[in-house]
Amino acid sequence: MMDYANGWMNGSMGGGMWMWTVIGALVIVLLVVVILNQSKK
After folding, report:
1. Each residue of 21-31: pLDDT tens digit?
2. CA-CA distance, 10 to 25, in Å (whole number)?
3. Which of 15, 19, 22, 29 could serve as 9's disulfide partner, Cβ 3.0–4.6 Å?
4. What is the pTM (predicted TM-score) of this model?
């Protein structure tokens, strides 16, 4: 598992975790924006 994760993260230690955290935050922000836009209509 570690070899696989390190392979596509260029061997950065724990790089996968912060990347998924950033992606998760962006998804949540997008969902909030969509919900706010829908509620305005």
Report:
1. 888 899 999 99
2. 22
3. 15
4. 0.53
